[in-house]
Amino acid sequence: MPKTSPKAERLSYFKMRYPDDAILEYVVWKLPQPTADRPHGYKYRYYYGKDGKRLVGYDNESGKGDHKHIGDAEYPYTFVSLEQLTKDFLTDVVAHRNQGGIW
């Protein structure tokens, strides 16, 4: 019988819609083992957007490592912890909403 590799375990998922129809959503998986581009052992995707357009995003897609998106720009992100990741993401979302969505 072939040996199957362990799969990532979903740790958290959250989704909400603001009254203006903007969406905030995130999902975090615990990987079976750390990888070169995910040394902390987590895969994640944090999204805030409206009308199908990402306005703020944090993710670590394979080959790119940890980074964030603010509008159309992409910046490196230094992962410290899941708690700090969520805090940083929400801080950027609040800043975007407080500025009237103009970045």
From TrEMBL:
InterPro entries: TumE-like (IPR045397)
Protein name as it appears in the record: DUF6516 family protein
Lineage: Bacteria, Pseudomonadati, Pseudomonadota, Gammaproteobacteria, Thiotrichales
